């Protein structure tokens, strides 16, 4: 996996991790807080309604207490008087007190007098017989002189009821009865109460025992009752509480539905926050990616491509740009310095290996020299022996010998000695060169080589006088060829030998300069690919009969009659590497071409 792909995957994982962490924090930490805030808001809406009802009950309790400790009321219970009723239980009094009902009961819980009116419309609003019966039961069972407040059921509507004992003006007893005041919670009153508290609520009756015992507390305590908050839909939240009937017959449910505006706003805010965070994260990661790509990944990719290209064509002259001032620039400079040192070492190694190749060829030459000296030495020895047998030298004493015979014998001895000495020197030198050759051959190994680079290097080993008159033109096809499997030194020697021959051919033809063209193509031989290299010149060429002999040992077209070991050795070297070499020439004066097959790497 490339470094670029790893960087992309890391950035994607960072973006995903950021999104997951942000969403988790919002869902686990932020959203619950908004949910609590919304629940608190709903509770406060309903509590405002509860406190408004408590205020109404407080008003009723205060009014009932005032009437309960009034001396006229105290006297009326003991001795009922019509004038009390006519002057006090009027619609005007109901309107001033803002109550719907005033009832007076004696100490035995018997109804004495009272009425129920709607002071706004003047219509009677009798609570019904069931109410009277339940009031009688409740008051008869009540002990003590403590006031009582709560909600109860009537035939008209739910009733806020306040009951106070009837005492004298000094609040002393014994109690002579009970005074009850009530306020109907009809739709008109509830609508007015909703506008007052700025919250929508409802009061419903459940004809079942209460599930939650809760009652309206006194205004002074203001303790929060038990509330149930639930989501009725994605847009509404319902908060409710149970209110038991004072008579124990049924239960009232006070509830309100509150729009989930806080949740909606919070969800929108969280979505915007998440979207904005993701966009910001993407922008930051994109900038980080561009920064990494421009400062790290792209330069590293250039270095990788440079090294890959150098590995493929073996060209150590390539250099990385060193304009950058950061660590990448420092790495490029160090890399270029390493290539400079490697190039110097390579050229030195090539010069050494070229000398080894020359030593191998010299060994071949000295071998021929020794072979040449061997018959000469043997002939001289045989001639001296023949003269001795014939008595030309041995039979005649020195003082009587002919001067010409003496000179001939001495000359033969000197020639034989010199021949033996040269023979021994050539043999010793051949042994030394053979040892060097064996070391060279033992160190040979094949490697993957680029033809274009090897050909350029071999041109440097052509002697200066010949190289100055020769121009090497490498076709673009060389760069497109795969590498070849060969020994670097051997291939350098083969190519430099071919170039030497071309330069000498131009010189023998009287030309001051010449061109050698190099081109290549890829061919398949069985299951193996072979690179077909063609080195052609425009020199004097060779006739057809000569082409079959140029790779034979001892053949040469050199006018100086030097020993012909070059192409013979090249043929053997190419064959040892699994290749093939042959020559072509259309004829004299029409140029010459060397074809070389090398196994593709």
UniProtKB/TrEMBL annotation:
<keyword id="KW-0808">Transferase</keyword>
<dbReference type="InterPro" id="IPR003660">
    <property type="entry name" value="HAMP_dom"/>
</dbReference>
<dbReference type="Pfam" id="PF00672">
    <property type="entry name" value="HAMP"/>
</dbReference>
<dbReference type="InterPro" id="IPR003594">
    <property type="entry name" value="HATPase_dom"/>
</dbReference>
<feature type="coiled-coil region">
    <location>
        <begin position="412"/>
        <end position="439"/>
    </location>
</feature>
<dbReference type="GO" id="GO:0016020">
    <property type="term" value="C:membrane"/>
</dbReference>
<keyword id="KW-0418">Kinase</keyword>
<dbReference type="InterPro" id="IPR005467">
    <property type="entry name" value="His_kinase_dom"/>
</dbReference>
<feature type="domain" description="Histidine kinase">
    <location>
        <begin position="364"/>
        <end position="601"/>
    </location>
</feature>
<dbReference type="InterPro" id="IPR004358">
    <property type="entry name" value="Sig_transdc_His_kin-like_C"/>
</dbReference>
<dbReference type="InterPro" id="IPR036890">
    <property type="entry name" value="HATPase_C_sf"/>
</dbReference>
<keyword id="KW-0175">Coiled coil</keyword>
<dbReference type="GO" id="GO:0004673">
    <property type="term" value="F:protein histidine kinase activity"/>
</dbReference>
<keyword id="KW-0597">Phosphoprotein</keyword>
<dbReference type="Pfam" id="PF05228">
    <property type="entry name" value="CHASE4"/>
</dbReference>
<dbReference type="GO" id="GO:0005524">
    <property type="term" value="F:ATP binding"/>
</dbReference>
<dbReference type="Pfam" id="PF02518">
    <property type="entry name" value="HATPase_c"/>
</dbReference>
<keyword id="KW-0547">Nucleotide-binding</keyword>
<feature type="domain" description="HAMP">
    <location>
        <begin position="294"/>
        <end position="347"/>
    </location>
</feature>
<protein>
    <recommendedName>
        <fullName>histidine kinase</fullName>
        <ecNumber>2.7.13.3</ecNumber>
    </recommendedName>
</protein>
<dbReference type="GO" id="GO:0007165">
    <property type="term" value="P:signal transduction"/>
</dbReference>
<keyword id="KW-0067">ATP-binding</keyword>
<dbReference type="InterPro" id="IPR050980">
    <property type="entry name" value="2C_sensor_his_kinase"/>
</dbReference>
<dbReference type="InterPro" id="IPR007892">
    <property type="entry name" value="CHASE4"/>
</dbReference>
């Amino acid at each position: 996996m490339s470094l670029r792909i790893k960087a992309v995957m890391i950035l994607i994982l960072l973006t995903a991790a950021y999104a997951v962490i942000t969403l988790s924090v919002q869902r686990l930490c932020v959203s619950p807080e908004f949910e609590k805030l919304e629940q608190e808001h709903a509770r406060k809406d309903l509590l405002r309604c509860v406190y408004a009802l408590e205020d109404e009950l407080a008003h009723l309790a205060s009014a009932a207490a005032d009437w309960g400790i009034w001396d006229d009321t105290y006297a009326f219970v003991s001795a009922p008087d019509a004038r009390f009723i006519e002057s006090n239980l009027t619609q005007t009094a109901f309107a001033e007190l803002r109550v719907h009902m005033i009832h007076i009961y004696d100490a035995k819980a018997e109804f004495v007098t009272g009425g129920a009116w709607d002071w706004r419309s003047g219509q009677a609003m009798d609570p019904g017989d069931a109410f009277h019966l339940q009031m009688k039961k409740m008051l008869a069972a009540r002990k003590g002189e403590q006031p009582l407040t709560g909600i109860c059921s009537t035939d008209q509507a739910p009733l806020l009821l306040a009951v106070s004992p009837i005492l004298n003006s000094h609040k002393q007893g014994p109690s002579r009865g009970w005074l009850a005041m009530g306020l109907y919670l009809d739709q008109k009153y509830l609508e007015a109460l909703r506008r007052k508290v700025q919250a929508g609520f409802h009061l419903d009756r459940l004809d079942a025992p209460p599930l939650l015992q809760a009652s309206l507390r006194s205004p002074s305590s203001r303790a929060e009752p038990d509330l149930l908050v639930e989501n009725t839909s994605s847009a509404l939240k319902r908060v409710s509480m149970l209110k038991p009937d004072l008579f124990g017959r049924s239960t009232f449910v006070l509830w309100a539905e509150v729009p989930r505006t806080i949740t909606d706003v919070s969800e929108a805010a969280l979505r915007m926050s998440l979207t904005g965070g993701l966009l910001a994260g993407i922008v930051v990661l994109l900038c980080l990616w561009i920064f990494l790509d421009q400062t790290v990944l792209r330069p590293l990719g250039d270095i990788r491509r440079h090294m890959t290209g150098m590995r493929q064509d073996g060209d150590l002259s390539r250099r990385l740009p060193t304009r950058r001032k950061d660590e990448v620039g420092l790495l490029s400079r160090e890399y270029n310095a390493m290539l400079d040192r490697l190039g110097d070492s390579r050229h030195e190694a090539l010069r050494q290996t070229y000398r080894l190749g020359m030593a191998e060829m010299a060994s071949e030459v000295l071998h021929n020299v020794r072979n040449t000296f061997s018959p000469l030495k043997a002939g001289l020895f045989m001639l001296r022996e023949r003269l001795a047998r014939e008595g030309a030298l041995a039979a005649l004493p020195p003082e009587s010998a002919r001067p010409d015979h003496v000179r001939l014998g001495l000359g033969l001895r000197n020639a034989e000695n010199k021949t033996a000495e040269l023979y021994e020197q050539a043999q010793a030198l051949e042994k030394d060169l053979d040892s060097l050759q064996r070391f060279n051959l033992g160190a040979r190994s094949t490697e993957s080589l680029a033809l274009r680079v090897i050909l350029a290097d071999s041109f440097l080993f052509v002697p200066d006088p010949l190289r100055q008159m020769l121009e090497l033109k490498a076709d673009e096809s060389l760069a497109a060829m795969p590498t070849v499997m060969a020994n670097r030194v051997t291939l350098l020697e083969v190519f430099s030998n071919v170039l030497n021959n071309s330069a000498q051919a131009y010189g023998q033809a009287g030309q001051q300069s010449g061109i050698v063209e190099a081109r290549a193509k890829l061919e398949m031989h069985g299951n193996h690919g072979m690179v077909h290299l063609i080195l052609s010149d425009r020199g004097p060429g060779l006739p057809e009969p000569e082409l079959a002999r140029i790779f034979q040992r001892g053949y040469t077209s050199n006018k100086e009659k030097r020993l012909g070991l070059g192409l013979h050795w090249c043929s053997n070297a190419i064959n040892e590497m699994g290749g093939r070499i042959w020559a072509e020439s259309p004829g004299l004066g029409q140029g010459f071409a060397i074809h070389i097959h090398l196994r593709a790497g």
